[in-house]
Design a protein that fits this description.
Radius of gyration: 24 Å
Strand content: 5-15%
Strand order of the largest sheet: 1-2
Shape: elongated
Largest sheet: 2 strands, antiparallel
Number of strands: 2
Distance between the termini: 43 Å
Number of helices: 3
Number of domains: 1
Structural class: alpha+beta
Order of helices and strands: EEHHH
Length: 93
């Protein structure tokens, strides 16, 4: 980040420039945003991120004239599916 301020009290036009490294602050803000949108245990997107994603898709598709399709699955006996096939089957499905 750079901040430029005029320097008064001289016949010439002068400025003072100050540079600040905000890399750590930016990374911390980015990490906080990620945590607010993902489950801390699994790292999967949460309901908040899902809502944002749907709104982004609707806006994008409205601009391009495309339609939005949403598929919702309700798996009966999900626990037995997960116990039999394990977590990798869920993440690749």
């Amino acid at each position: 980040m750079m901040q430029v301020s005029p320097l008064y009290g001289s016949d010439m036009t002068m400025f003072v420039a100050a540079h600040y490294d905000i890399t750590q602050r930016y990374l911390a803000e980015e990490h906080a945003a990620f945590l607010s949108q993902h489950d801390p245990l699994m790292g999967l997107a949460n309901r908040r991120r899902f809502g944002e994603f749907v709104q982004e898709a609707i806006r994008r598709d409205a601009r391009s004239g495309q339609s939005v399709t949403l598929l919702e699955l309700d798996l009966d006996n999900f626990k037995s599916f997960n116990d039999t096939l394990g977590h990798p089957a869920v993440t690749t499905a």
